Amino acid sequence: MTVRLPEPFTRRMRELLGGEFGEFLASFGEPRRHGLRVNTLKIDGESYRQRSPFRAALRPVPWAEAGYYCGDEDRPGKHPHYHAGLYYIQEPSAMAPVELLDVRPGHRVLDLCAAPGGKSTQIAAKLKGQGLLVANDLARERTKALARNLELAGVRNAVVLNEEPERLVPVFQGFFDRVLVDAPCSGEGMFRKDESMVAAWMRHPVTRWTEVQRKLLRLAAEMLRPGGLLVYSTCTFSPEENEERIAELLAERPDFEVVPVPLRYGWAPGRPDWVGLGGIDRRHVEAVAGTVRIWPHRAEGEGHYAAVLRRTSAGGSGTAGEPDGGPPDGPRAAAGQAEAGRAARRGKGREGGGGADPIAAWRAFRDEALPGFEPPGRLVAVGDHVYAQPEDVPDLGGLRVVRHGWLLGEARRGRFAPSQALAMGLEARDAARRLDYGADEPEAVKYLKGETLPLEPHRLSPGSGEGGRTPEAAGYALVCIDGYPVGWAKLRDGLVINERAPGWRWR
Prior knowledge:
Layout lengths: L6 H11 L3 H7 L7 E4 L6 H7 L7 E2 L6 E3 L10 H4 L3 E3 L6 H6 L6 E4 L6 H10 L4 E5 L3 H13 L5 E4 L3 H8 L3 E7 L13 H8 L2 H17 L1 E11 L8 H10 L3 E3 L9 E2 L12 H6 L4 E3 L9 E8 L19 H17 L10 H12 L8 E5 L2 E5 L11 E3 L2 E7 L2 E4 L1 H6 L7 E5 L4 H7 L4 E2 L5 E3 L12 E7 L2 E9 L2 E4 L9
Parallel strand pairs: 5-6, 5-8, 6-7, 8-9, 19-22
Antiparallel strand pairs: 1-3, 1-4, 2-3, 7-16, 9-13, 10-13, 11-12, 12-13, 14-15, 15-17, 17-18, 19-21, 20-24, 22-23, 23-24
């Protein structure tokens, strides 16, 4: 179905694109591109493609590791593998910015405008469980989806914040090796995907977004260490929101430079000739030719813009760090340990926890249900909740924290209740007891919907910590589908009592 485009939009794009406008306009009459990205924290892309129930429709996205085009008719969001966190449904061109960010294991990475979490989960896959991801979003409601998507993916080294970006700078100045600013924008690249974006575009002028984008870029620049990379991206075509924002930052910050993006896959260069700002040195304007545009008539995607920037020096603000091989050390590490101690003390003896130490309750649970398992990072109790927090986390005092790290669970009346996030971040072999269902078996969907099931002894298996012994048919069991964890159950009186969190149940 052809999208009804606003006349002011088509008039402007005709002026900008000239002879290309006809092809651009025709692309809005074509079906939009659907994609999924395999979660390489759990399985590599090719291995999943080979076992996928919709493998016949999967084609590699050329610019994205483990990214695939898929058919919407396959409804991948309704398959048990989605609920096991084996992939994330993501528009193909939206996979490009994180690929350009060049994230490596051990990096400290900030996703400044992170909700709903597609790019954050992609960053986490690149980190491979090492280093630190700080995923922030200003919209409180959206951070719920952000935290859930990170937990669904089994991410164990992320902190989720709900903060004004300017409040992050004093805590994280010069701290990050990589920063992603996937900025709020007018969403012109979403018109084919979501026609409601057309009405939103008509209501709000571009200037509404440019002021926000200018502020985000300035603040993000403060939090990047010298030698680090910042990627700025939008899903819009407007040069005021793209090339002009980059030219302006370069003029303000001589310690930043554009890292040219190779033009492959049908990508097009940024357009210096579309920059209408006055008073900016021409060399800063010309530099935006090294940025990249993904057009829907040139590549198989809805449309994106991305710029890769390197901070070359401290530039009078921020703190110097190590070269690009690894993150800096400094007083923030000690501050993070101090925060961990304060948080842990807050957790002890808290009313409602039955006077028990939440960390002691966790260890008792771990010894019984996850023998031999040790979560990464340091244990932190916040109230009755217990987290495994990455070692690099600085003092977060005064910030609105949604997740202090990997949420392991909470102490309730002297006992430990494991979280859904813990289940999703484990491997099947970690558990003393696990229940296995096949994705094509009706019991798998029944479990995902929250139903209680009869215990079938042949489905009960020991984890590696049990040395192959037949596990006791009582206590917590890790429920798996095709070998991948999807939640907890309590085994009692011949029943599998469903402990899958209500907000996670298949509806």
